[in-house]
Amino acid sequence: MQMMFEFTTPSQIIFGQGAVKQAPSLVEHWGCKAFVLVGNTPQRAAFLLKQLHLTNIPFSIYEVRGEPTTTLVTNAVRTARETDSDFVISCGGGSVMDTGKAIAALLTNSGNLFDYLEVIGHGKEISHPAAPHLAIPTTAGTGTEVTRNSVILSPDHHVKVSMRSRSMLPTAAIVDPELTLSMPPHLTAFTGLDALTQLIEAFVSNASNPITDALCREGIQRAARFLFQAFQNSDDRDARENMSLASLFGGLVLANAKLGVVHGLAAPLGGMFSAPHGAVCGCLLPHVMQINIQALLSRAQNSPALSRYQQLAQILTRGSSTDPMDGVIMLKDLCGRLQIPSLTEFGVDSESFPMLIEKAKAASSTRGNPIELTTNEFLSILNAASA
Fold first, then answer.
1. For the whole model, what pTM was predicted?
2. pLDDT tens, 352-370?
3. CATH architecture for segment(s) 12-180
4. Is the separation of the CB atoms in 277 and 93 below 8 Å?
5. Cβ neighbour number for residue 357 with a 10 Å cutoff
6. Architecture of the domain delimited by 185-386
7. Could you give the strand order of the β-sheet that contains 34-38, starting from the edge strand earlier in sequence?
8. pLDDT per residue over 192-208, tens digit each?
9. Which of 118, 170, 233, 290 is most buried, by the most CB atoms less than 10 A from its CB?
């Protein structure tokens, strides 16, 4: 069988406890002034800011509170230009880094955000390389530090859309597990399930490749073993390191393989309701897996995806079973122990199901699902996730 695939990453990834200390030496020749983005917990970036100050690297600070919206990104780009910033450092969760990627691209390309947004914008290609961008995650979930798109909420359209380009890959990423030690349990659970979902969906997707497969196997194994451990004990450095690595792997596979129905549904859910992305992923994941397996067994028994689900069960159960449904049972148990709310607790009701399904079927993520699902199968997923 002939094989062809590509694999893209940032030009440099630095991983390890205390790695954030290397930030000043990485960016000192990038330009005259940094535009530093921080999140809801700015103290997580305190050490970075101190290092920049001590090494005489000028910077201005911009706080990203909540998910990036079209208004927030537009205002942040204006501020970056007004402060004569010529490179970007984003230190925070996925929202902060998504904002940073959009700003870095818009600093060097003409026009405005809507010129480049998919679905609700003009979807223009980004013609010039983005400004230098250092991404430093303080959570372990999205892997956004190594992906080539920025997910942005449009409140006016009640939808999350992407700005996407290979040139939006951050110039460098520093993944320092020590920065995740202060995450509270609920955030540990939500972000960790986001990482696990990306790894699982990429592993069973119709666009996986040998490199993403290897990363998925390794990442799923680490997340399945260490997520609850990190949830129970925020100071467990071993668990935090393994979850940071799983998150990094999740970002790498997201950038190089497709996802599936979990993310296909999560995007409109996040646009229509105030629901954290990772919590939605955790709520949907076991039920999407169950429906996918049942659909494959009934309509595509010769599909290679069934073998993937057998392998997945073996990884999730640490070798005790190759029955795909045992993998589903393990995930349901994990989500229960992590206290993941149902969709109902985020205000999702059955009246919204038809619109959610319509949007999910049209979503780019859904096209990576190992089998095309029917409307009734989507309904089964949403009903189960709402119970």
1. 0.95
2. 999 999 999 999 899 999 9
3. 3-Layer(aba) Sandwich (3.40)
4. no
5. 22
6. Up-down Bundle (1.20)
7. 12-15, 172-175, 133-137, 87-92, 34-38, 59-63
8. 999 999 999 999 999 99
9. 170
